[in-house]
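pinging the channel bc i need a second pair of eyes. not urgent but kinda urgent?? the chain im working w is below, pasted from the shared doc
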Amino acid sequence: MDGGIVDVLQFAIDGVTDQTNATANNLANAESPGFTASDVNFQQSLEKAITTSGTATATETTTPDPAPAGSNGNNVDLGSELVASEKGALEYQQLSQSLDSQFRLIRGVVGGSWQ
């Protein structure tokens, strides 16, 4: 990934947002017969793009959750989805704060206020 830290943080925020949307969809369909939960993955690809020299590209993938289905054909694990929801909220908050810090640094460097 040849972009700067702002590009990396923005990609991560987008990935966490998509994970949160998938989790919300999974939770909304927790009682829908035959529903298959989905997972959004981007972390490993982002890590590889960051650590690879050159112009590696990070990608995001959405896959069906491999968990076994219950008697109604639904494989949503309510407990796991609730934990994923909280984790996503915390990750989004941390990434947003990091992005804000980067913009404050840039603002300060160009002669604006550091606050």
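so DSSP finds three helices and two strands in the chain. and The radius of gyration is 18 Å. — does that match what u expected or am i reading it wrong
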